[in-house]
Design brief:
alpha/beta, Rossmann fold, 9 helices, binds magnesium ion
Length: 219
């Protein structure tokens, strides 16, 4: 049976950072809705252009568009054994659609890892973040996780950039949207006995260790 692991957390909580490590450790692909939208935008697809209108404002892309993109991604052969979902689902309708979708694949949500980080810390994380231009969108932080050479990705050598939605104004909006629209999913998954809450305000390696411990207790 395929394994589906969800990562939930506010903007800058460390979902992408941890999903990249879990991918290596568990051998499951990372499926990040935000990365998929950014990849579409880079390729100037209609989906990318549509998503940009919402992302630039820090709003969520409509559920039907997001669900259909995830559906297509989960149907790819490399996802047959399961995936680590980073940033999806983010609304109640997305969570319901995911249940239906995974049932089609003979699976279900196995565990939901909530990376808990206070608002002030989220802002500090986003302010110092730099991302690479490679397909895997490797993530650095000026203070907490600097690249070996300034401005260059350690892994694929591409130049680092700051995301268009990492301006102070849009950051605040994204955090508000998280608490309004996505945070209710925490209670939803807790009630179903699927949630593991992890203290995300620790060193990156410590958060990884806690996530792996929570996974081995539940999968
Ligand atoms: P998305 O790309 O998912 O952005 P987000 O949720 O705002 O989260 P981030 O990617 O900003 O943060 P992260 O948790 O991945 O943190 P990271 O690891 O980078 O979505 C962008 C947009 O796309 C949305 O606003 C929306 O418009 C749209 N979208 C996406 N999914 C959607 C959906 N399902 N439905 C509708 N719309 C959707 O870490 C942040 C920084 O902190 C880095 O610099 C990192 O190095 C550093 N860091 C990480 N961990 C630590 C640590 N433990 N200690 C110190 N520093 C750390
Ligand atoms: Mg991310």
């Amino acid at each position: 049976m395929p394994t589906y692991i969800l990562l939930i957390g506010g903007p800058g909580a460390g979902k992408g950072t941890q999903a990249q490590v879990l991918r290596e450790k568990l051998g499951l692909p990372q499926v990040a809705s935000g990365d998929l939208f950014r990849d579409n935008l880079k390729r100037q697809t209609p989906l990318g252009q549509l998503a940009k209108q919402y992302m630039d404002r820090g709003e969520l892309v409509p559920d039907d568009v997001t669900v259909s993109m995830i559906r297509q991604r989960l149907q790819q052969p490399d996802a047959a054994g399961g995936v680590v979902l980073d940033g999806f689902p983010r609304t109640q309708p997305q969570a319901a659609a995911l249940d239906a979708l995974l049932a089609e694949f003979g699976g279900r949500v196995n565990v939901v890892l909530y990376i808990q980080v206070a608002d002030g810390v989220l802002l500090e994380r986003l302010a110092g973040r730099w991302v690479c231009q490679g397909a895997e969108q490797h993530t650095y932080h000026l203070l907490f996780n600097p690249p070996k050479q300034a401005g260059v990705c350690d892994v694929d050598g591409t130049a680092l950039y700051q995301r268009a939605d990492d301006t102070a104004e849009v950051q605040g909006r994204r955090i508000k949207v998280f608490f309004e629209q996505t945070a209710p999913l925490i209670a939803h998954y807790r009630e179903r006995g699927l949630l593991a809450a992890i203290d995300g305000e620790q060193a990156i390696e410590t958060v990884t260790a806690d996530l792996l411990a929570a996974l081995s207790a539940r999968t």
